[in-house]
Write a structure and sequence with these properties.
Blueprint (H helix, E strand, L loop, with lengths): L6 H15 L3 H8 L5 H9 L1 H20 L5 H17 L3 H15 L16 H25 L9
Helix pairs in contact: 1-2, 1-4, 5-6
Length: 157
């Protein structure tokens, strides 16, 4: 029988393998070549020390996923589209329709998200500058219209 490294070392490796591969404790132990019996694995899984390693490994994975620069709205939409395909392949029509409705909202095809926002990407300063330009044009237009009317007339027929 092979000799195990220090307990805290193999327990940490086991927890990390479980999280990375998404496998059970027995599969992870087998992947690592750890010579543990079923009873030893059960006792290990219930140990507080192992549970702490497992929580830490899960949190580290979540952090890596959250920090991934490729994680984006487009990637989420792609994942949703793949999930919809899976639901359709399994003939889960009600679930597929609900997911398609969610996709339509995310994409802005329906609901309030489908309204066009002409101010998107503009700062308050940009909006104020454009407002000022429009008001100046209106004022110039009024002045030009006032000059076109001959003096002494009211401009009405």
């Amino acid at each position: 029988m092979a000799v195990l490294p220090a307990k805290n070392v193999w327990m940490k490796q086991l927890a990390e393998e479980m999280v990375e591969s998404g496998s059970s404790i027995s599969v992870a132990a087998s992947n690592l070549g750890l010579p543990l019996t079923k009873d030893e694995l059960i006792r290990t899984a219930n140990r507080e020390e192992f549970q702490a390693f497992l929580r830490k490994a899960k949190n580290e994975l979540r952090t890596r996923v959250a920090d991934d620069p490729a994680r984006s709205k487009r990637a989420a939409i792609g994942a949703l589209a793949l999930a919809i395909e899976g639901l359709l392949n399994e003939a889960k029509w009600v679930d597929a329709v609900a997911a398609i409705e969610k996709l339509a909202k995310i994409e802005g095809w329906v609901g309030s998200e489908s309204n066009i926002n002409i101010f998107q990407g503009m700062t308050a300063r940009d909006i104020e500058a454009e407002k000022k330009k429009i008001l100046e044009r209106i004022e110039l237009s009024k002045q030009s219209a006032g000059q076109a009317v001959p003096s002494g007339t009211t401009g009405s027929a």
